[in-house]
Amino acid sequence: MGIEATLAVIGGKWKPLILCFLGTGAKRPGELRRQMAPITEKMLTQQLRELERDGIISRTVFPQVPPKVEYALTARGKSLREVLIAMSKWGENAIAARQAAGEAVTLQHPDHNGYLQY
């Protein structure tokens, strides 16, 4: 099934969030980690390496001291735009339904504007 192939690349707790944050432009690892607290540095590094291996993001190392590294979406990563927006909208609707039922749940990151610019 196609969904298995998609989940093999972007499945998990952190990868969709990484992609959404990179949807606003290239980011340094420290910037991503601050936006995604409480992710650990080790987990972020692992997820970034897997996304890079799968051709979803690119890693650019700038030749300076200290070294500067940035991650950005590739064309293949940008092609996930509609999938991520659909996931975000579904989640927003699910949260709204739970709130309407009296649950005290909140949306941690209430927009998907990063992906709307592509």
UniProtKB/TrEMBL annotation:
Domain of life according to the entry: Bacteria
Keywords assigned: DNA-binding, Transcription, Transcription regulation
Pfam family, one: HxlR
InterPro entries: HTH_HxlR, WH-like_DNA-bd_sf, WH_DNA-bd_sf
Keyword Transcription regulation: yes
Gene3D superfamilies documented for this protein: Winged helix-like DNA-binding domain superfamily/Winged helix DNA-binding domain (1.10.10.10)
Residues covered by the HTH hxlR-type domain: 1-99
PANTHER family cross-referenced by the UniProt entry: TRANSCRIPTIONAL REGULATOR (PTHR33204:SF29), TRANSCRIPTIONAL REGULATOR, MARR FAMILY (PTHR33204)
Protein name: Winged helix-turn-helix transcriptional regulator
UniProt source species: Lacticaseibacillus yichunensis
